[in-house]
Amino acid sequence: MSYKLDKINQKILYELDKNCRISDNQLAKKVKRSREAVRNRILKLQKDGIIQGFITSINPSKFGYMFFKMYFQLSNIPTERKKFYEYFKKLPGLYWFGGNDGVWDLHATIYAKNVKEFNKLKNKIYTDFKHLIIKRDIGTLVNVRQYPKRYLVKGIKERLEPTIFADDIVDNILDELDQKILNNLAQNARINLVELSKKTKSTVDIVRNRIKKMEKKEIIIQYRVAINHTKLGYDLFKAFIFFNNLSEKDEIKLYEYVKQNDKIVYLIRQLSAWDIELEIMAESYEEFNHLMDDIRLEFAESLRNYEFVLMREDIWVLGDKDIF
Hints:
Layout: H1 7-18, H2 24-31, H3 35-47, E1 51-58, E2 66-74, H4 78-89, E3 94-102, E4 106-112, H5 115-128, E5 133-146, E6 163-166, H6 176-187, H7 193-200, H8 204-216, E7 220-227, E8 235-243, H9 248-260, E9 264-271, E10 276-282, H10 285-298, E11 303-316
Antiparallel strand pairs: 1-7, 2-4, 2-5, 3-4, 3-11, 5-6, 5-9, 8-10, 8-11, 9-10
Helix pairs in contact: 2-3, 6-7, 7-8
């Protein structure tokens, strides 16, 4: 049986996902409860395993990195597959990875300074696990549209613009203090300024100003909440969509379609065999299939085919290790 959220907890999670650095006072006003009641609800959601952590979305493209995607289909050798997963978690430049059922067993996002650096890493992975990898593919990320977790709140009418990351590469310089701030925010986005200033051996005012500057430069793009969606009765699917020709008109139409759909949480644009990836939070395979049928109908003239995976693991690695 899935964990039931009342309307207050739905709203708390939704607001935390929009900005988990929101103060307890501000959050209390939004959900019309006392500050103490809100704090207790957040602690209870953490204790119950619904809130898994607080994520700072950091955009390496804004300090000079490119994003690459890697996809693997693996032989059925359980011990070696486990080694491969553990190996992957420790890779330099690993941004995110997912373990799946479906067309791919594992796929990941890597950031590197250039194609040469990524190619060296790619070749090492292929060499170290040539006995395990059956099929592989790579892509170069263009950009990602990250949508609020609107599926949490039934009937919500708010239609926020997505947060976009990757995109244009800018070579902003980060000094040692910036790096320390990012490393700490990556591990806990809700860390307060007093604690953060102590950890970075700086002052509250300096740390606050540094954060504001990094937000303005889009190095920091958002503060979100990591949720155990399976406990809430959801499955996360990823669809790999192949278009015959994705025209600019169709692309705009697709962006608007996704913006209106509460179940779609990511739209990923990349250079690869397929054109678009959609990450969809559905309560069943039937619901996912119904949504994909609707997309095929909406884009009947241009959509050629799609493949999909059910994502069993969805891990933001930046929270588990230092970026720098």
